[in-house]
Amino acid sequence: xxxxxxxxxxxxxxxxxxxxxxxxxxxxxxxxxxxxxxxxxxxxxxxxxxxxxxxxxxxxxxxxxxxxxxxxxxxxxxxxxxxxxxxxxxxxxxxxxxxxxxxxxxxxxxxxxxxxxxxxxxxxxxxxxxxxxxxxxxxxxxxxxxxxxxxxxxxxxxxxxxxxxxxxxxxxxxxxxxxxxxxxxxxxxxxxxxxxxxxxxxxxxxxxxxxxxxxxxxxxxxxxxxxxxxxxxxxxxxxxxxxxxxxxxxxxxxxxxxxxxxxxxxxxxxxxxxxxxxxxxxxxxxxxxxxxxxxxxxxxxxxxxxxxxxxxxxxxxxxxxxxxxxxxxxxxxxxxxxxxxxxxxxxxxxxxxxxxxxxxxxxx
Length: 364
Fold this sequence. Notes:
Blueprint: H1 3-17, H2 29-39, H3 44-57, H4 61-65, H5 69-76, H6 83-99, H7 107-111, H8 118-129, H9 138-148, H10 160-170, H11 176-189, H12 208-211, E1 229-239, E2 242-247, E3 258-259, E4 262-264, H13 271-283, E5 286-299, E6 304-316, E7 326-330, H14 342-345, H15 348-363
Parallel strand pairs: 1-6
Antiparallel strand pairs: 1-2, 1-4, 2-3, 2-7, 5-6
């Protein structure tokens, strides 16, 4: 491959065809950093709904560092992968306390911050500071695999080094930020997974897969394991006009988010019995299960859940937490003040409608 010609063809295409995205209109390292964190595992269309409001609420790294975690997670609510937000929060505090509020313009230093892996470090350092580091994400892997007919498995972490080596080799060291964005843009718009637009590809002449009509053979992947499904039961506990919500531990899956208490249904156990048991184990409250409200299905990255939701009434006891770290008794109109996992958010409108109708009926 003529690498210089490849770089020229790629950059010329990007100059004319790149999407106008808000994070490409700033040179502020903090704002670029935020965009790259959001773009991990989330589609651009989704980020466009969150990025402006997030920066309006947290316009500087200092504002983010001072933010309350619940407020931050509420701003992030719906994007998923909440560890990104928690790590960004921790990292912002370090940037403020140790680096005077300046995002480190050194790869090794920046790489030490919470949540900053190889991709984030390379993206921010190249785009914000013009440092010669090549990014490797899903789009880049696909482009590289087809360009070079790589046999390395794109979804095997042990093969990551092969993709990184080729990305480094093709990187334009004089325009690394532009080059990285162009390569990712090519993967997003042209070298797509199922319908590659080879006829309009600006680097088709350099692509070994296109030349041999083997585009759909790449990238190579190892077979995925079957995704397990877990049965979960949760209870909406009512006490007078209040509802109980609990907060998850700050780390781990969905850390820091609020939810309705519940947990896994054991083998041979009914969902209703699991609901009562889990509420008692988590909060020491005794409740009566009134009726089934909804069944929700939701997929995470490595597993799925089937969530059975029950309306419950408080019978006795004082809240004593064993797994959650905090709790609130809230009214219906206060629910939207708290960040919830998507699985909970799926049934909250139904819950609100149901309880509102009961209130109207009792008022009559």
